[in-house]
Amino acid sequence: MAAQEGEWNQVSRKRGRLRHIPTTAQKPTTGGTESYSLLGLRPNPSPEFTVSDIQRHHETACQDWQASQCWQVLQEILLAAAAAETRPTITKAICLGPGPFDPSNGSFAARRTAHIQTAAFRSIVKTIAGSQSCQEIKCIIQEPGFTQTDKDFCAELGLEVAETPGAFPMVDASTLVFGIHMELRTYHQALANLPAIFIGAGLDEWKKVIDFEPGIQDLLRSISEMDATYNKYSFPDLNYMFSSTTVYWRKSEEVEVPKSSIAV
């Protein structure tokens, strides 16, 4: 079954690299004939967890995330990048496709990834907000696999849930976009307007895993522009949950933000 317009394919990893999951025996492609449901990750028709259940799982994942070496290193990167006086002000943060908290395939790994990525998103936003003087950051989350219970849980976290593809046009020059292991056409939609910060698969990784075919340059246009003009930092990995992830942080139009020793 073909994916509905505005939905995205999940991206799997092979030997630490990103790849697209092909719908046939043909080579992986850059986009969109595969249904979310074919991966067993459609919205769960019979969710088992209550909001309280999800909250308990999330609290455990948050504790693990906060104690991880990944977060310790990432926090140093964020604080170094945010310390520049010329940094862009962030007013909005959008989390794309972390996965459902009560997946229909019952996968513990998928559920944990959803919680860890959401915890990472929230801690990143909190760190950046703390570097801004009384500047509130509105947080939005978009995941086509969410059940109503998932959405209710997100509301408890203070996250506004956007129905796919509603979050894409919300991106502007004051937005942080967080999307881990997304399909390239999803990035293309989300980055129609360049954000202040983008956290996702960088240009170098797409060059490794995608055959350059007609139209690919247009899909990579926004990522290519950020790669050429933004400061770039490597996002530390945690059990492949953030493999091949890059932080693109817009430079000042007047003064270039010095790169720290931890920049890529």
TrEMBL record:
Domain of life of the native organism: Eukaryota
Disordered, as annotated region: 1-37
A Pfam family of this chain: SRR1
InterPro entries from the UniProt entry: SRR1-like (IPR012942)
Coiled-coil boundaries: none
Compositional bias (Polar residues): 23-36
Domain SRR1-like, chain residue ranges per copy: 81-249
Protein name (Swiss-Prot/TrEMBL): SRR1-like domain-containing protein
Organism: Podospora didyma
